[in-house]
Structure formats: C-alpha cells, structure tokens
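User:
I study polymers; will you set down one protein's sequence and backbone structure tokens?

Assistant:
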Amino acid sequence: MAQYIQNEASQKSDSDYIRQSMNTPMLSKERELELAIAWKDHGDEKALHEMINAYGRLVISAATKFRFYGLPLNDLIQEGNIGLLEAAKRFEPAREFRFSTYATWWIKSCMQDYVLRNWSIVRTGTTAAQKSLFFNLRRLRAKIEGEQESEGLNDKGRQEIANDLGVKIHEVEQMEQRMNGGDNSLNVTISDENGASDWQSMLEDDRPNPEEIVIGMKDTQTRSKWLQDALSTLNDREQKIIRDRHMGYQTTTLEALGVELGISKERVRQLEHRAMEKLKSSLTREVPHRLELFADSY
C-alpha cells in the first residue's frame, strides 16, 4: 500500500477547503428543489454551483472515512466532487427524494473506485462481492476478534465473514493476506544460500522451453497434414458440410446447409455422418497411434 506525505501548502489548501465546505449553509428542501429544477430543466449553472457548494460537506464526511487507506485526502475529495457532479447530472427532482440522500451514494461509489484503483498496483477487487469484502473486512474482523477476545481470525471467523458477504472462504483468506502486506518490487534484494539475489530470479518460469515449442509446432504441422489428407478423400459436398459444421468459428445449422445445398435437413445429417466415418477410417489408416491425434497443452 502506498503512503503519501502532504507538504505544508497542500495541507493548508485542504484545511481551507474543508473549513469553507463545512461552513456553507445547508439548503432547505424547498430551495434544493428549486435549484434542482433550474439546473435540470434550464441548465442554470449558477443553480448547479449553489447546490454543489451546499453539499460539499458530504464529500468531506465521506473522504474522512476512506483516509485510512493511505491515499491523499485531497485526491479523495476530488473524486467525491466528481461523484457529486454526477449525482447532480442524474438527479430527478420529480421523484421527490432529497438530493443529499441521492448524492451520498455517488460520492461513496467514486471514492471506492478510486481506492481500488490506487491502493495497490495489483488489481484488488473485480466483482461486487470482492469490493464489499475489501471495504468490510477490517470492520468484520475487528468485530469477530472483539467477540473472541483474541487477535487474528480463525477458520470459523473467516467462514462467518464469507457467509455475511456472500464470498468463498478462500477469497477471505486471499484478501486478508493482501491487506496485511504491501506491494514489493521484484527487484528487492533477498538473501539465500547462494548469496544475495532478488525476488525476480527466484520465480519459476512455467512456460514451455524453446525445444518444447519447436516440437509442438512440428506436431501441429503433422496433425494438420493428416487432417488435410483425410479431407481430400471426401467429395466437395461432404467437405463443405464438414468445414461448415466442425471447422469454422461459428457452426452452421443443418437446416441452413440444407437450404444452401438444395437438400433436406435430414439428408445433410446423413451426409455429415457418412463423411465423419470416412474421416475416421482415413485417419485410422494414416496415424500410427491414436493418441498422436491429440495435441499436448503448452
């Protein structure tokens, strides 16, 4: 997790903005509705600015709740203001909801996305459940540890969190490990039996070596030749049926082939079956061992 240190000028700027936002009077329901209609129906930017300025305190409140993730407070506030503007853009005065209630969700959503993008160089949460796990794990862990009067989670506690948030227990374990450790460079020096080294040199490369790649390419060419030789034993109509039914990115239906060839769907099925038998017979004669037809996974 990255740590940010603000300079004195930046801290003063943040303090001034926070003080101004917290001192701006809140809007009455009637004034809020008037401004929302003026912006929604007439594009009145002055009305928008007054409404946004009045609810800057919502952004400040949300930003303070996310400050423990080690990210700059002013960046969190900027992201919250983006959410506030998005809320103003989407707000429907006719629904008679308070703008503050509607805007809170957008402010929080923008801040959460910012935290997930910047908390670590490794992507942290991709699904809604994983995001919920990221933002609630600390709270639930503290609650369970308080009930157990001990530090750390056991399997029972992890299962309880998994059940509460609708995730799998291994996802809880992985997120717990991620949040307990920070990002490290692969070039960090470590000590081992052979002397100083780095993490990068200790990683195992599970990709195929050059020899395996060349053998795989050669085997692929051989299998391709076997298939082409087998296809050459079919007539033109049978070849078309096999290619359209089994060798294209999209499978052509029996009915569509029947229309194209001017025969019935059942007749296409019969020709396909006959062609497959021919291919099987040809490949059986040409291929020394049946398992050689199947490619290895590289």
